[in-house]
Design goal:
Chain lengths: ~150, ~80
């Protein structure tokens, strides 16, 4: 018996299949609307540091991140990895990747470098976002993944 | 072989050539004109692949799972 999956997925009239540009426009419209309704209201609070990001700052930081990714030459379909905890750059960067049409890979920085390397070997990210605490581990994983890529060619 | 990925560190300092700080990175994208920004929205040639996660590997090696922008959008709509 096949499961009636569609009745669960398509339960909202708004749930229409969007192309990447339509999805990008949708996300941007949500950020703009939030920034208009409460520009100084908190969009995110980092529980560890107490640092707050307002809706206006969230919008601007996301747009800057998309522009930065474009400036680095990334195109829709390119992969980007991110090894970080939840802090005030995490969600703007993730939203920016959706808007830019990139393939995002939220990695887990505490995995063994060999496992991280295997994921990087599969994904071949053009950019890796991380935090200082995970930097050496990520660099080691990139080194191993490139050695594996080289040996498989 | 693919090029070495660029590393961008959210909270660190730039120590050598292959690492960029988030401050340096965001300076690349300081133009906040939303009209010209939206002109850059183009089709993803890769079947709208938007997100890739890996399984935990409890029953074997971790396996990649791909979500499209459509499935991410559905998820957002279901939580509205």
């Amino acid at each position: 018996m096949s499961l009636p999956v569609d009745q669960y997925v398509l339960r909202s009239e708004k749930s229409v299949a969007l192309t990447t540009p339509q999805f990008s426009t949708y996300l941007l419209s949500v950020l703009k609307k939030n920034a208009q309704l409460g520009p100084n209201d908190a969009a995110q609070i980092d529980g560890d540091t107490g640092k707050t990001l307002s809706h206006q700052q969230f919008l601007e930081q996301t747009v800057r991140t998309v522009n930065g990714l474009r400036a680095l030459g990334l195109l829709p379909g390119d992969a980007v990895s991110m090894f970080t905890r939840n802090q005030t750059y995490t969600f703007t960067t993730a939203t920016a990747m959706y808007i830019a049409g990139l393939l995002q890979h939220p990695g887990y920085a505490y995995l063994e470098p060999e496992l991280v390397a295997e994921q990087l070997r599969v994904i071949k990210p053009r950019v890796v976002f991380t935090e200082a605490f995970a930097l050496e581990r990520v660099r080691a994983a990139i080194k191993v993944s490139r050695l594996k890529l080289k040996s498989s060619m | 072989m693919s090029a070495k990925p660029r590393i961008i560190v959210f909270d660190g300092e730039s120590t050598d050539g292959d690492i960029m700080t988030m401050e340096e990175f965001l300076r690349l994208g300081s133009d906040l004109d939303l009209d010209t920004f939206e002109e850059g929205f183009v089709e993803n040639p890769d079947e709208d692949h938007a997100l890739i996660i890996f399984t935990t590997g409890s029953t074997g090696p971790p396996k990649p799972v791909v979500h499209t922008s459509k499935s991410v959008h559905y998820l957002m709509m279901m939580n509205e």
